[in-house]
Amino acid sequence: MTRMRQIRDQIATLGEIGEILGAMKNLAMMELQKLNRLREMERRAVQTIEAAAADLARSYALEPPQPAFLGIRLIVGSERAFCGDLNESLVTAAGKMSMHAERTVVVGSRSAALLAEAGCAAVSVAGASVTEEIDRVLERVVQELETLQREAGRSRPMRLVASYADGETNAVRERRLAPIPDLPDPTPGFPYPPAVNLAPLDLFVRIADQYLYAALHEVLYSALLAENRRRLLHMERALDHLNENRARLRLRYNAARQEEITEEIEVILLSAEAISARA
Length: 279
Description:
The protein is 62% helix and 11% strand. The chain is of the alpha/beta class. The protein has one domain: ATP synthase, F1 complex, gamma subunit (Pyruvate Kinase, Chain: A, domain 1, 3-Layer(aba) Sandwich). It starts with a helix and ends with a helix.
């Protein structure tokens, strides 16, 4: 009976764990639906800004100055666990980034811990666990970037390159966010330059600032999307493994129950034979 009780308790425990994993899986699926929509909106906004900047640069033959930039790398990892080797992949990829970085900003406590173990000094920002926290994370990231730029001197604008998991391919991606990256081919067919109320170069700088804000939004949405996709896959595998263990335990429970029933029958038969012998 003790053995059966132990197996029954194990089955019950696995059932409770399965309920928790199922809830986490459902939450990840809900986040995926929201993040897919929001990331697509930000992607269209980024493309619109790129097109506007390209038209402005072509129409006025702008060549923004190239000062000595402050190199900053941004690593967008995860705040929560159960997302596979996401953070390890990001930290490994960050070490191979093509741009030399003087400063590092890392989003997500999991990636921050790995960087600290590797002896890499970085400014840490708590990551987003759900979609609604992304605006808070973006605000903190912008604050930290402004602090780093202020410490380096305003005469040194930043060259910001982000390393994050792409929400579409799940692969780690390196992307330059500032200064505004190489622009797409401008829309042809404008006989006259656009009428602007600011000096074209000043306007280009402001467009670049808007681009950075929109691109950071897209990066954070994409990173959280990739994280939840990995978490969903992780939960599905964990649930499959758990169900296999429960099935094996049920077989063991049934076998133990059959053995106990057999033993009870043997005891009854032996008792019956003893009574018959005394009679």
